[in-house]
Amino acid sequence: MRIRKHGLLLALAVISELQAQTSRVSRPGEYSGYSAPTYDSYQRSSFYLPMRDGVRLAVDLLRPTRDGAVHTERLPVIWTHHRYNRAFTRNDSIIDYASGFGRGVDVLLKHGYVVAAVDTRGGGASFGTQQGFFMPDEARDAYEVTEWLAAQPWSSGKIGMVGRSYLGITQLFTAAQRPPHLTAIFPEMYVFEWYPFIHPGGVFRDDFFSKWQFLTHQLDNGVKFSWNGARFEGVAPVNGPMGPAQRDSAIAGHATNRDMLAMWRGVPLRGSIDSVSGKDILTERSPSTYLEDINASGVAVYGLAGWFDAFPRDAFLWFANLTVPQKLVVGPWFHGQTDGFDLSTERLRWFDYWLKGINNGIMREPPIRYRVIDAPDGSAWRTARRWPIAEARPTPYYLGATAAGDRHLTRRAPTTRGTRDHRVMDTTATLGPGNRWANTYGGAIGYPNLAPNDEKGLSWTTPPLSAPLEVVGHPVVHLWLSSSTGDADVIALLEEVTPDGRSVYVSEGVLRASHRRQGRAPYRNLGLPWPASRADDLDKPGTAVVPLVFDLLPTAKHFRAGHRIRLTVLGADRDAHVAVTHGAPDVTIWRDATRPSHIVLPVVRPR
């Protein structure tokens, strides 16, 4: 009888386990049966944490609660190093990281994670000053915060980090410090190297830095402001009767924060020395400088990028250069978006695996997941194990013209001599205020019909496509060019032209002609052009014909049958690069047998 009973219990246990396994789901956007939301709310506390030099950082600590009681077991901690205020006041209420800009961290709290948000030194309610973003002291602070969180009695000692943009970049700098208890991070839309963002192709990104400087100046000085339609009354103080006075004292100290616009405008070349610090700050402040330390840290990295964000190239450079465990997801998103992707669920899968040891299979999946813009819904999401993807074939499309004189893109290389196109570039050209760069500082989202703007430059367009075609990877432009002004800022656009004549933005690249000389990148560069942009490398072309080679930001785009592919060359984009330093040049682009200007597209035949 006992044997029968034991056998029955064993059978029931096996059945129960099989049922549990069959009810478990773990794939992007879906997750059940592995962890449960055992907490229903959280308790917020806020205080100052002193750093090694006595500077005090404002900390918000959010601890899970159940029926009003704070957790008693040791839990993993996920934190963010916040440049845009860890918490705000609004209508006598506190908007903290979970209820404000935390993008779903409430899910982590309910699943048994402590969450912390810390104002960077010189920002929010923290003391100290900001001497340019991502200063070394900020990274050293991150080490101390990480290890402090790990040492607390309510902490399991497993630490992760989350956040987007500035809050994503700080995660890489933290990993570079190699804190022993930092286990995994989830950076979103984050930079690799600063020079190609600040001075892409040698052209200063005026609009971003003037607007970002204005935004952070308001934040650092406690000014009321509106952002993305919400009104904020200022940074929240830490708890306690002295909190407001301490916050005000900290804000007063921010008066000597550096002017970011002047700082980055003052280092126009690779190797330029900052007049204040006497350092090569473009190198010092680039996360890529610390690749060796990041890889040595062993910290697992799950990156998120957007095809219409400022940093999609950066995400793939990280993927090419990291040797730690990693994953990457890329969607058709601007800086503030993750439409069609369950970010909260994916974070939970990631941290459950790395911080709680739950074997949910996330690391057995292909490391890259990306969505092809405008692809049919059933085939839009793809996976890859390497980048560039194996299916992409570099395919040249040459600049040419029909017998009637219409400029076109063709697969046939030119055979004639002396053929060229020219026009005086219209410096009022603009891609509009809803561009990818503006959205990084909270600006609008969405490009207009670019057909009228194309008329301000030179365009070449394919005939209507007889079948769908996909471009997945990094387009590269080869132009033979001369300019009446001795130099030129060349902006190349990849566009889709619809049957009704609308021109739809796909991607862009920029190069100042005097920065055309190529160098060798100090990291794996995916085989892409890398303008050297050092003082000894500059070469103004004068009126000579010179070859320019530069890449456009990566994309994954489905071009429908009947639509056309267009390459447009502009001499300005007034909503991204405000300063026009070369007047209105008369630009000539050659497209003959010896100077066959073309664009190389990584073409994939649709599935």
Structure description:
- The chain is of the alpha+beta class and 607 residues long.
- It folds into two domains: 30-371, Rossmann fold (3-Layer(aba) Sandwich), CATH 3.40.50.1820; 393-604, Sandwich (Jelly Rolls), CATH 2.60.120.260.
- Strands 3, 4, 5, 6, 9, 10, 11, 14, 15, 16 and 17 form an eleven-stranded mixed β-sheet that branches. Strands 18, 19, 20, 22, 23, 26, 27, 29 and 30 form a nine-stranded antiparallel β-sheet that branches.
- It starts with a helix and ends with a strand.
- Residues 8-20 have low confidence and may be disordered.
Q: What's a concise summary of this model?
A:
It contains 14 helices and 30 strands. The protein is α+β, with helices and mostly antiparallel strands and about 600 residues long.
Describe the protein's topology.
Layout: H1 2-22, E1 25-27, E2 30-32, E3 41-50, E4 56-66, E5 69-70, E6 75-82, E7 88-90, E8 93-95, H2 105-110, E9 114-119, H3 136-151, E10 155-164, H4 166-176, E11 182-188, H5 195-198, H6 206-220, E12 225-227, E13 230-232, H7 243-253, H8 260-265, H9 281-284, H10 291-297, E14 300-306, H11 312-321, E15 326-331, H12 343-356, E16 368-371, E17 381-384, E18 393-401, E19 407-410, E20 420-424, H13 436-439, H14 451-454, E21 458-461, E22 469-473, E23 476-483, E24 489-497, E25 503-512, E26 546-551, E27 555-559, E28 564-570, E29 586-590, E30 598-604
Parallel strand pairs: 6-9, 6-10, 10-11, 11-14, 14-15, 15-16
Antiparallel strand pairs: 1-2, 3-4, 4-5, 4-9, 7-8, 12-13, 16-17, 18-19, 18-30, 20-29, 21-28, 22-27, 22-30, 23-26, 23-29, 23-30, 24-25, 24-28
